[in-house]
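Posting this for the archive.
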Amino acid sequence: MKKYKFHTALSNIKNDCISWNKEYLLFYRQEIYSRRDQALSLKETARLILSIFIFPNFKNKKKIFFFQGLLHSAYFNNFEKDTVVIIGSKAEKKFAVEHGFHFISNFSIAASVKALVYRDSSFVLKIIFSRWVNYLKKIESSVFLIYEDTQPVGTFLNYLSQTCSDNSHAICIQHAFYAKPNYPARLEGRKTEFNFIINESQGELIQPNFVKTSIIGLPYSISAKKGEIRSVILVGVGGVFYDNKVFRDSIDYFKKIYSIISQNFDLEIIYRPHPNEFQFPELIQELSENFKIIDTMDIVDRLNDSRSIFIGVASSVLFQAEIAGHPVACFHADHSQEAILSDSAKILQMPNFYDLQEWIEDLRQNSTPKETNDDSLQKDPLKIFDQAMSEFYAAIK
């Protein structure tokens, strides 16, 4: 793997973040402009100044596994606790303290990268980046397990690993199954040396620059309980956070679906908000008024619960539900992307969903779930992850 020089790495961080913003501006303009305004605020200026006084501190000098956030916390216990460092903010710090892991704040990383991207100021980033490089030189081996390489923190960590010695590497663990974008876009993992992917088709979609990939499937075992279908799960798109039009259009479509199902079937209808929808209490109140039942069940528990019908747009929940044995349907409210599902999934006809009633009737008459053979579903996810790490170690020798 090519190791970058210091100034080349900083240039790559800037160029990668700017190019990603431009690629997504057409479809996520509201979110991109919001990020820019936030990065140029007085509050962010204060954060940037404070960043100069934050130092990474590694007690372990031999081997460290840096995890970006808690998204892949299922794998933390695959390593000795003294070797795991969680990079994040308040939630990650709380988790690290409660479970005996080490923690480093991403505060200075995010602030310094934003300053470079939105203010064209590299002063603080040079300090932060060189500080990390000098600390990592004292460590025999470091592995960064990141879940993205397109945003400030993941981009920083990826190029940091590629600037240090040969004993530092990065692995992008894919955290969701992507929808296929209908526009030129750089998906997560294309800039990272190694990728741990959910299944083969995800690898084909990502098309990383390097062939070093391992299939690890989902980080948990899922299987719907057999029995009669008694509920419908409407899966929120979360677009309120980045594209309010897509979100509002989807809510209108969900209302139509809700009406059709409630008038023709004795099925419990549950709306499952996207995680970022929970950031807006007033929105949850609105959703409660429209859909009555709001799903707060843990995603793994929901997928392992009684067989239900899952309906949504392009979502990793739909992909996982189908793998677990739940019947799945989607509608293309977001024209910027298409859901990647099997041939068994139903594509509902917009805008009136005239085919929805017949499809549900067929499902209830033929209640036996179809067997899945997807390599995303692993009987022992943690063992599969260990095998992937073994492949990684073999590749870096």
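The mean pLDDT is 87. The chain has 14 helices and 14 strands.
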